[in-house]
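Extended Data, panel c. Modelled sequence:
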Amino acid sequence: MVEEICKNYYRKDYSGLIFSIHSFEELIIKINFVLVPLSFPLLLWILHFTFNLLNIYPYKLGVYPRHLSGIIGVLTSPLIHSNYSHLISNTVPLAVMGLGIFYFYPKAAYKVFAFVYFCTGIFSLAFCKRSLSYWSKWNCLCICLLFIL
């Protein structure tokens, strides 16, 4: 069924919009293509705005490399941004890569997202030096992305 929908996705239908929905399955596929990958950057913006509005400083929730107290950062560090320019510079790549992964690889998209989300934190916790955790985390992310490709 999915293959049939994908074949007909770009069909020339002059009677309606190209994004017309003909079945429930087609609706689910289109939601996965657009809404799911854009929900994570939206969550980042909501969290950052809330932290700023309530004067909450969540920096202790980041990864503290090579220390057991930094294990909470494996879950929370991708959600923390230092300022709006940091958040903006992460939003565009997350949205573009998310849309690409969910569009071209819909079956593997959730696995890839979970792998990148958790492995960057785990690699930072286990292998990074304490003084270079931000740059080392970026290097771990690049290694994860290269591994996936």
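Residues 2-6+22-148 form one domain. This feature is highlighted in the accompanying rendering.
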